[in-house]
Write a structure and sequence with these properties.
Blueprint lengths: L1 H33 L5 H27 L1 H18 L6 H15 L2 H11 L6 H54 L12 H4 L13 H31 L4 H19 L6 H4 L3 H24 L2 H28 L6 H26 L5 H11 L13 H4 L4
Helix pairs in contact: 1-3, 1-5, 1-6, 2-3, 2-4, 2-5, 2-13, 3-4, 3-5, 3-6, 5-13, 6-9, 6-12, 8-11, 8-12, 8-13, 8-14, 9-12, 11-12, 11-14, 13-14
Length: 398
Amino acid sequence: MKTWIRRQLPLLLVWTNSYERLTWTPILVLIAHELDAPHALAFAASAYSAANLVGNIVLGAASDRLGALRVAGGSLVFLALTTLLHLEAWSAVALILVRAAHGFFAAAVTPSSLSAASQGTEPAERGRMMARLGLVIALASVVASPVAGRLVGMLEIRGTLQMQTAFLLLVGAVGLWAGKGEEAGRAVSPPPDVQALDGARWGRREIDPRITLFACSIGFAVMFGQNTLFYAFPLKATEVGLGPATIGGMFGLFAIGSMVAFSPPFSRIADRYGRVRPIVAGSFISAAGMFLLGVGVARESMALMAVSQLGYGFGFGLVFPAVSAATADGSESERRGMAFGLLTAAFSVGAIVGPLAGQFLDPHLSPFSLAALVMVASLASVRLTRRVAVPALTGPAG
């Protein structure tokens, strides 16, 4: 029973983390206005992102020493405590500090969950497992903000955050229980895909730098594009007269496109044809979708915007599980938390840089075109995988 729970728990952990993160969209605005400090929102977002970036690496590495499920569960417990601290913020500075602490502990859950999921999965099943995790994240993104808005209307801010705290404590307790007796740092026989790592000997706890750099380059570009989309599309669409409902519906098409790619038969592509092929195909599809989205906005073409959002979402759905599986392929089990910490750190950097670069270069270069160029340019890192003897990168995984 406990073994089964350990295998399924990463799905619940990723859902909880994604849902929790997205519920703050309507709540933080209300808290900032209660403090008469709406100007603090930008600083709070930056503090959260910076602390999250540090936490990705620090807590990802900690999961290798302490066990992935224990770190994820413990982080959710601390996340519950910092959730309550939002209610005690008495000034803009206090809110910024609370958001920084919240961002640090939130950083542990995704790399630890990805690490735990890969540990219990054969190489030939990793792509499918990562697609399941991606599907869970997509579903959470669809329901989180609307549910949070409804709860705030019913329970107000205090009641909503108290309910969220109870949920985080419950899931965190399950993670700590499932992680009890988890053997971290134990040398075991290597899986077939890791045996061939160049120069790596089992027991040295290695991460192949070429695969990791490749994965991080792709991960940076993926989140550069996604956060550029989230920042630029509402802004540009509003300028051409689209209302909130239409903009929200367009983002729904992005979610649908990604969920299609996260579902069979597409979820098996990274396992059947190697990790590189869906990464290259998905990056080109996403880049095309992003470029055409800019054209659609400029021409005020609803049809082109809709198709572009679907295409971009589908391409994203091909890339995410493949790059996550490649990260696992390029690391030994005892260093996988650190590997996923680096990948999620690359996600964080891309998410931060994308909107800033898009805003800086606009109107000289459309933010949509910029994101498309970055996604295509990241494919130069594929060359790093050419001399890496890991069959799962370029062919069937197992």
